[in-house]
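Lab notebook, bench 4. The sequencing result for the construct came back, and we need a structural model before the next group meeting so we can plan mutations. Quick request posted to the team channel:

Model the 3D structure of this chain.
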Amino acid sequence: MDPQLARAVPHIVRERRLLLLKKHGGGPIPRGNSAYWVTNDDYPTQALRECVEGLVRIQASVGDSGKAASCRVTESTGKALLDKTTCGVFLRRARFRPPVAPQERTATYEHSWVFPPPEQDGS
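Done. Here's the predicted structure in token form:
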């Protein structure tokens, strides 16, 4: 990896969680750990170069098999590249128990793309 990019790789993702839609009586039940669906390894190279970060919230529909079937951004980072990456990775990785009730067909997920603070010099 380019040394300049290596310094910029995010070391902390503050918020990454599946938000179940409680107001609708629940939501889809994830298979596996949803914290691993979108990770720092997915940070787009261009966004690293530009030091872009932000919080994105998406809503996805869950198909009969339990796989995320569609994705839309409900709260944007303000950077299309991060929003698009989040939806793309989520659609490839997110898995749920097959839905049996209508309220289990919609998942809300949020992810923070966060850069580390600038390095402190030793002086």
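The chain has one domain: 3-113.
Will bring this to the meeting.
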